[in-house]
Amino acid sequence: MKPDCMILRLGELTLKGRNRRKFEKSVLSQIRKALSEFTSLRYIPEYGRVYVELGDASYEDAAIKLQKVFGLASFSPAFTAPLELEAIQETALTIMKHLRKQPATFKVSVRRVNKSFPYDSQKMNYLVGGYVLQASHGLTVDVHDPEVELRVELREEKALLYAEVEEGAGGFPLGTGGRALLLLSGGIDSPVAGWLAMRKGLELEAIHFHSYPYTSERAKEKVIDLARQLSGYTHSIKLHLVSFTDIQTSIHGVYKDNLFVTLLRRAMYRIAEKVAEREGLSALVTGESLGQVASQTLPSLNAIGRVVTLPILQPLMMMDKKEIVRIAESIGTFPISILPYEDCCTLFLPPSPSTNPNIRVIEKIESSMEFLPGLIEQAVMQTETIRIVYEDKAIATQHLF
Ligand code: ATP
Ligand code: MG
């Protein structure tokens, strides 16, 4: 027996009134977009959720697409039955027998919307639960904390039954939070930061700094692959590729000491802000996590962050590496990130980068580098921009929240 419909629950229950309606409308439009290839679907919006008739579409195929819709809290495969006791009992038993994991405990929760149905919900709990029990070995009822809750809705024309609940991506629908620029390296962290930002409703463009020919063409390809994997959540993503080679070699020509990385990062942020402003984006998103490396101590973050005025959003700041890796795996960026191609920042790395840079010293060094503002302008002007469109061959994702 295959599910003939599904129940989609829309997230962010804290929203009320007009905001709630706006939220639901925009999640529904993202859902329709994600499922547009399934032409047989019929959507019936209900309060806080959407009931979808599948027609000839497969639930499993639709579920893969739904995993990528932000604002969707959870969803369930569901089965309809005629409004007759025996049919409902049989359907309930079939659902329980075909669960992916057989539970030890369950309960039945019946909701009677159709008041002309002869048995009330209490009686139906008993009639359906009892029927399943007597046909199943090793299953018991636990009304307080069951492993599986089998829900039965007695609607006007039919009964609707479902037991499995899949977690959706949650968050806010794409684009409802504004637009930002993601600083995307080839590492593990920044793609995760990007995903978390998108999950909060931000639409992203990405910027990547490379030191070609010191870094290889393949390192650039890797970042394109990461952007492609992220584009699965947005359909397409604009990627700005910046050559950082001249800036690195010029700075290195006059300064090689322990503030080198800080100087590079400041140049990077300045370029990113200029590109963001040119593209009409209102924040930078980066993958820093407090204390991870020398450039991510509080004094370093302070010395780097102050060169821009746009807000810098750093979703990983307080997260453990383990948690970041878990998300990277679930969104499919991890296997790409661990490919062994070098990042531009590893070029000319001093033996002990400063963890406590002095801002006055940095500003003095920068003021002696008269070439710097010109090179920054040049890097912005010469940015190469490509649009990356999602392809289904991008690595499959598992569901996360
Ligand atoms: P990641 O895993 O994202 O590379 P990281 O732990 O290696 O992060 P850093 O190398 O200090 O940390 O970089 C901090 C952040 O700066 C990155 O998360 C990213 O947002 C940005 N960044 C670093 N290198 C680049 C680059 N080559 N192009 C674009 N952004 C970069
Ligand atoms: Mg890195």
From TrEMBL:
CDD domains, sorted: PPase_ThiI (cd01712), THUMP_ThiI (cd11716)
Q: Which organism is it from?
A: Paenibacillus hexagrammi
Supply the InterPro entries for this chain: Rossmann-like_a/b/a_fold, ThiI_AANH, ThiI_fer, ThiI_N, THUMP_dom, THUMP_ThiI, tRNA_STrfase, tRNA_sulfurtransferase_ThiI
In Swiss-Prot or TrEMBL terms, this protein is called Probable tRNA sulfurtransferase
Residue ranges of domain THUMP in the record? 60-165
Q: Which UniProt keywords apply?
A: ATP-binding, Cytoplasm, Nucleotide-binding, RNA-binding, Thiamine biosynthesis, Transferase, tRNA-binding
Q: Which domain of life is it from?
A: Bacteria
Functionally, this protein is described as follows: Catalyzes the ATP-dependent transfer of a sulfur to tRNA to produce 4-thiouridine in position 8 of tRNAs, which functions as a near-UV photosensor. Also catalyzes the transfer of sulfur to the sulfur carrier protein ThiS, forming ThiS-thiocarboxylate. This is a step in the synthesis of thiazole, in the thiamine biosynthesis pathway. The sulfur is donated as persulfide by IscS.
| SMART domains, sorted | THUMP
Asked whether the keyword Nucleotide-binding is assigned, the reply is: yes
Q: What is its EC number?
A: 2.8.1.4
Q: In which pathway does it act?
A: Cofactor biosynthesis; thiamine diphosphate biosynthesis
Recorded GO molecular functions are: tRNA-uracil-4 sulfurtransferase activity
Pfam families annotated for this entry? ThiI, ThiI_fer, THUMP
Q: Classify the main location.
A: cytoplasm
Family of this protein: Belongs to the ThiI family.
* Compartment(s) of residence: Cytoplasm
List residues binding ATP: L183, L184, H208, F209, R265, G287, Q296
